[in-house]
Design a protein that fits this description.
The chain has two domains: 136 residues, Aspartate Aminotransferase, domain 1 (Alpha-Beta Complex); 222 residues, 3-Layer(aba) Sandwich (Aspartate Aminotransferase, domain 2), CATH 3.40.640. Helix content is 40%, strand content 14%. Strands 2-8-7-6-5-3-4 form a seven-stranded mixed sheet, with helices on both faces. Strand 5, helix 7 and strand 6 form a beta-alpha-beta unit. Helix 2 packs antiparallel against helix 9, helix 10 packs parallel to helix 12 and helix 11 packs across helix 12. This is Aminotransferase. Its cofactor is pyridoxal 5'-phosphate. GO terms for molecular function: pyridoxal phosphate binding; transaminase activity. Belongs to the class-I pyridoxal-phosphate-dependent aminotransferase family.
């Protein structure tokens, strides 16, 4: 048998796939299951976006290679950042991605050599650790603790790691922690990157799911951020087009060039009708984002209230589409997830996001309020 590359030994099998298999067995056995494991939006995109996509796919000239982003898409992203976040960027500072995970994984290949370090949060989205493995680079994880609002302390990173680090990944609103960073924290991150010549990569995929009155905070609110940072964003969670796979990276063209050069050897761009629909959404469907945010805030409130009223005092998330819930001390993350599944609810064990996630489960708010109320009651039964 031909053996796979050694780097594959460092990639764990997806816990999401394992949970999906267990869920499938339960469903086939006739059990009613509420799946709150994966952050895939259950709501549709705006009708106008679907209409444009439907119209454009009928045009015979739309099926060639896109090769790269259209000028309309770049301009739409720049306008969206100005109007939505109050951040000025130029169109040539936009690189289209096939979803933000595309950018996060391929940035490591574009920048890291064996022996280099990538610094990533723990717990963190699995691609942060996987990208180091794919690039044959070293991973150093910085722990996130609830008592510190899930903000890593840069000054606790060993000097020998800092010297060899070339990239550091941050993520706010956080997945899985649902934490938010303030401007002062981003100022520290940018200063750290500039001082040590480390590329700061901010995963901003949940930008539009912030439940306070404050505007979502891009790292580019910090004046010097463009000197050292790239921000990845996506339309998946904001406009509910996760399966269409379209996102973008923002940064100085010189920082984006290695990733652009790599992608020209890997893919041929995003399907043109999807680009057109995405550009329209960014330009004309911003009111949709307010409605979407209100839906998820209401879901959060209904679900959290149901848990709190029954004695499980989980932390109230400030943003994102997840509840990061500490499990009772008698359970591990996995054992609680399996117990929840027995009660008809699929959640993700926190250990899937790194050692720092042990003791928690991630619960995605991707069902209507009525289903979330039922799920909360079932989870309470699992806790008892």
């Amino acid at each position: 048998m031909i053996q796979p590359a050694n780097r594959m030994n460092r990639l764990s099998s997806s816990v999401f796939a394992e949970l999906a298999e267990k869920k499938r067995a339960k469903v086939q056995a006739g059990q009613d299951i509420i799946d709150l494991s994966i952050g895939s939006p259950d709501l549709p995109p705006p009708q106008s976006v679907r209409d444009i996509l439907s119209k454009e796919v009928q045009h015979a000239d739309q099926y060639g290679y896109a090769l790269q982003e259209t000028e309309d898409f770049q301009t739409a992203v720049a306008d969206y950042y100005k109007q939505q976040f109050g951040v000025s960027i130029n169109a040539d500072e936009v690189l289209q991605l096939i979803g933000s995970q595309d950018g996060l994984s391929h940035l490591a290949l574009a920048y890291l050599d064996p022996g280099d370090y990538v610094i990533a949060p723990d717990p963190g989205y699995p691609i942060y650790a996987a990208c180091a493995s794919l690039a044959n680079a070293n991973l150093y994880t910085i722990p996130l603790h609830e008592e510190n609002q899930f903000m890593p302390d840069f000054h606790r990173i060993p000097v020998e790691v800092v010297k060899k680090a070339k990239m550091m990944i941050l993520n706010y609103p956080g997945n899985p922690t649902a934490a938010l960073a303030n401007k002062a924290y981003f100022e520290k991150a940018v200063a750290f990157g500039l001082e040590h010549n480390i590329l700061i990569v901010h995963d901003f995929a949940y930008a539009e799911l912030v439940f306070s009155q404050d505007k979502p905070l891009s790292i580019f609110h910090i004046p010097d951020a463009k000197k050292i940072a790239i921000e990845c964003n996506s339309l998946s969670k904001s406009f509910n087009v996760a399966g269409a796979r379209i996102g973008y990276a923002i940064g100085y063209p010189s920082y984006l060039k290695p990733l652009r050069d790599l992608k020209t050897n890997i893919d041929y761009g995003v399907f043109l009708p999807i680009q057109k629909a995405a550009a329209y959404a960014l330009t004309y469907e911003r009111p949709f984002l307010d409605k979407q945010r209100a839906v998820f805030k209401k879901r959060r409130d209904v679900f959290i209230r149901s848990l709190h009223e029954n004695g499980w005092n989980v932390r109230v998330p400030e943003g994102g589409m997840f509840v990061w819930a500490k499990v009772p001390a008698s359970y591990s993350s996995l054992s609680f997830a399996l117990k929840a599944l027995e009660h008809g609810v699929v959640v993700t064990p926190g250990s899937a996001f790194g050692e720092g996630g042990e003791g928690y489960v991630r619960i995605a708010l991707v069902q209507p309020e009525s289903s979330l109320k039922v799920a909360a009651q079932r989870l309470i039964e699992a806790v008892e």
